[in-house]
């Protein structure tokens, strides 16, 4: 075979001749066209201009959050039950109904607050986003490794991210800014307790939990709904977290360790698995609880609302191209299939607009036509145009509207009854009634093992030392409200440190004396002569 017409096992041409995007063979990929071999270059450098101008544009805008990520393909296998009941009791979503039914998935893991090539050892929530390619279209379950969040109202989300991202003047993350915001956001105390403990640095992506964080609904064939929370629990690989000291040691050796761990595990056939569990609650206010069940800063008590398994997920294939699959992957909390629905969770409602909106900005108006984002089923819309349109997804060439008498697309038949929640009340700007911002944080502290408490206190003390005294006072008041021992240990740590660490910028959250690292580099660097 001469290599010009054969196909390999992937169905691709075996001819390895380099071409440009127009299909023109490239006969010299080493040199531009110049006047003589020393230049200058000429304007008709078509192959060079095509190559360099594409290179100038080969990055999409970085995600505002969750920029640093890794991903993998796999499948979700349904149990057909939720706990010991038929899953159809609660939801008509087709992917859950049959025992053993498999649905293809793509998962993107990420860190939240740092850039595309930041260390994966930094203290930060981890994103855990799953795209299910179901027979009814895509379902995106977009969440984090931790089961709660910092805020309960989407109005505060830009401010939260700004506080955690680098200072706009210094371009350095500063715990002083973080705690200035948190000291005015008491609902964040449970999340802060998790984040500054070893749970704030998972050992890798395989050995961490996942959660939908927000409250959703399941809807059955009769249109009846229940509230649900989703949780991914690692199966064979278990859960592992790192202390700050361990994370700093690992970062000094490999700041891509989590991406590498996931890739190599799948390559060697050690496929990571998670079980999807749900907590179910009736769709009402639940006045017997001391918190609002729609509050994403709170955990639903497992003894009252047990984790009920509904299926498992296996990741068994690495991406073939990082950019095409992981970087261009686009998720949204509003991407639900029949049988799944939204709750009135105010954070979820805000996320549902923001997520899809940011994908249109970042990837483009036709981001859903990209293979990684496209559903694995027929798509038919009347949407037109937009940058990078490469497929017209309708059957009639002239009718791009609905309704029409002469042809075109028509509405689908409703298979189950609509869920019709009753809503009544004044339109207001108010906080929820049952905030209870400190109880669960105190309970979480008391449940921690001694080594987890020690790491939590050390990380918070290191961070708090550099904060403004007014911020320290407000934060200590919060910690004492959570638990007296919790508050006392942080107070003693700050007092023992005095003002010795209040020099310069606070640095990354949880880092051990970042100011000392700045001075150490300047003082201990080896001198060299210019060349």
UniProtKB/TrEMBL annotation:
Region (Disordered) location: 1-39, 497-531
Which cofactors does this protein require? heme
Key words, A-Z: Heme, Hydrogen peroxide, Iron, Metal-binding, Oxidoreductase, Peroxidase
First-level EC class: oxidoreductase
One Pfam family hit? Catalase
Recorded catalytic reaction(s): these are: 2 H2O2 = O2 + 2 H2O
Record's function text: Decomposes hydrogen peroxide into water and oxygen; serves to protect cells from the toxic effects of hydrogen peroxide.
Q: What is this protein called?
A: Catalase
Q: Which organism does this sequence originate in?
A: Brevibacillus brevis
């Amino acid at each position: 075979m001469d290599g010009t017409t054969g196909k390999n096992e992937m169905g691709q041409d075996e001819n390895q001749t380099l071409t440009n995007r127009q299909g023109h063979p490239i006969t010299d990929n080493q040199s531009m066209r110049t006047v003589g071999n020393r230049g200058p270059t000429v304007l008709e450098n078509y192959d060079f201009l095509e190559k360099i101008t594409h290179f100038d544009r080969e990055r999409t805008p970085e995600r505002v959050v969750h920029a640093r990520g890794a991903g993998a393909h796999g499948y979700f296998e349904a149990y057909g039950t939720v706990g010991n009941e038929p899953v159809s009791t609660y939801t008509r979503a087709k992917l859950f109904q049959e025992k053993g039914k498999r649905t293809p998935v793509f998962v993107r893991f990420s860190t939240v607050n740092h850039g595309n090539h930041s260390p994966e050892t930094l203290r930060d929530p981890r994103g855990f986003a799953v795209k299910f390619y179901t027979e009814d279209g895509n379902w995106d379950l977009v969440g984090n490794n931790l089961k709660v969040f910092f805020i309960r109202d989407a109005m505060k989300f830009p401010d939260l991210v700004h506080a955690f991202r680098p200072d706009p003047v210094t371009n350095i993350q500063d715990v002083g800014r973080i705690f200035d915001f948190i000291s005015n956001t008491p609902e964040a105390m449970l999340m802060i307790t998790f984040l500054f403990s070893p749970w704030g640095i998972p050992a890798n992506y395989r050995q961490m939990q996942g959660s939908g964080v927000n409250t959703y609904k399941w809807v059955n064939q009769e249109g009846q709904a229940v509230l649900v929370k989703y949780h991914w629990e690692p199966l064979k690989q278990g859960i592992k977290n790192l202390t700050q000291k361990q994370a700093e040691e690992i970062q000094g050796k490999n700041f891509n360790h989590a991406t590498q761990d996931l890739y190599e595990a799948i390559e060697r056939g050690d496929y990571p698995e998670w079980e999807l569990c749900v907590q179910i609650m009736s769709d009402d206010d639940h006045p017997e609880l001391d918190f609002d069940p729609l509050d994403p800063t709170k955990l639903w008590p497992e003894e009252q609302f047990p984790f009920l398994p509904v299926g498992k997920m296996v990741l068994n294939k690495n991406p073939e191209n990082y950019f095409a699959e992981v970087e261009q992957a686009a998720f949204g909390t509003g991407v639900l299939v029949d049988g799944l629905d939204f709750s009135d969770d105010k954070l979820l409602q805000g996320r549902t607009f923001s997520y899809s909106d940011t994908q249109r900005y970042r990837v483009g108006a036709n981001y859903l036509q990209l293979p990684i984002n496209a559903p694995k089923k027929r798509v038919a819309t009347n949407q037109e145009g937009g940058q990078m349109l490469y497929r017209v997804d309708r059957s009639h060439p002239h009718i791009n509207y609905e309704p029409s008498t002469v042809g075109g697309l028509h509405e689908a038949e409703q298979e189950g009854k609509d869920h019709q929640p009753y809503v009544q009340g004044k339109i207001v700007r108010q906080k929820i009634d049952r905030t209870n911002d400190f109880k669960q944080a105190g309970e979480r502290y008391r449940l921690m093992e001694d080594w987890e408490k020690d790491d939590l206190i050390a990380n918070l003390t290191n961070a708090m030392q550099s904060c403004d005294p007014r911020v320290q006072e407000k934060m200590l008041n919060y910690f004492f409200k959570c638990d007296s021992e919790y508050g006392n240990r942080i107070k003693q740590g700050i007092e023992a440190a005095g003002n010795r660490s209040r020099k310069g910028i606070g640095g990354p959250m949880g880092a051990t004396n970042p100011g000392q690292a700045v001075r150490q580099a300047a003082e201990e660097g080896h001198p060299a002569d210019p060349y």
